Amino acid sequence: MPDVLPREGIRLGLSADNRWDAVRQCGAVLEELGAVEEGYARTMLEREQSISTYVGEGVAIPHGTDASRALVRRTTLAVLQFPIGVSWDGERVTTCVAIAAKGDEHVAVLSSLAQILLEPDQAEKLRSSSDPNEIHHLLQSISKDIQE
C-alpha cells in the first residue's frame, strides 16, 4: 500500500488569503498527488461551508463531503503549513491536514491527530517545523492507523 502521507504532500511555509484559499490549496495538493479527481476541492469547500473543519491547537482538517468519496482514487493525507496563520471562524490556523478518504478513514485520522495535539511539544512541531521529514515522522502514526 502506498504511503498515505507522501513526503511530496507536505508543503511548508505557505500563505493563504483566507480559509477558503487554504482549503482550495489543500484540494489542489491532493489533486496534484493524484489522490482525487478534479472537483474534489469544490466538495472540500462545500464541507467547510456546512461545518468548520477546525479541530483546535491551530489545526484544521479540510476534507470532502460524504458524496465526494466517488472522486477519491486513494486515501491520502497532505499537510499544508501557513506560518503566519489563517483566520478560521475567529481562530488562527497554521496547519491544515487535508484528507481524501475512500471510506471512514477520517475517523482514524481524527483519533491519531488528537493524540498528537494533546502533546504540547508535538503540536508545536506540527505547527512550526520547517523540516518536511520531521512532519512526516510525526504523522507516521496516522498513516499506520489508516493502513491497519
Could you give the topology of this structure?
Blueprint: E1 10-11, H1 19-32, H2 40-50, E2 54-56, E3 59-60, E4 76-88, E5 91-100, H3 105-117, H4 120-128, H5 132-147
Parallel strand pairs: 1-4, 3-5
Antiparallel strand pairs: 2-3, 4-5
Helix pairs in contact: 1-2, 3-5
Quick take:
This protein has 148 residues and is an alpha/beta fold. Helices cover 43% and strands 20% of the residues. It has helices spanning 19-32, 40-50, 105-117, 120-128, 132-147; strands at residues 10-11, 54-56, 59-60, 76-88, 91-100.
Task: Name the descriptors.
single chain; 148 residues; alpha/beta; five-stranded mixed sheet; 5 strands
Description:
With about 150 residues, the protein is of the alpha/beta class. It has helices at about 20-30, 40-50, 105-115, 120-130, 130-145; strands at about 10, 55, 60, 75-90, 90-100. Strands 1-4-5-3-2 form a five-stranded mixed beta sheet. A hairpin with a 2-residue loop joins strand 2 (about 55) and strand 3 (about 60). Helix 1 (about 20-30) runs antiparallel to helix 2. The chain is globular.
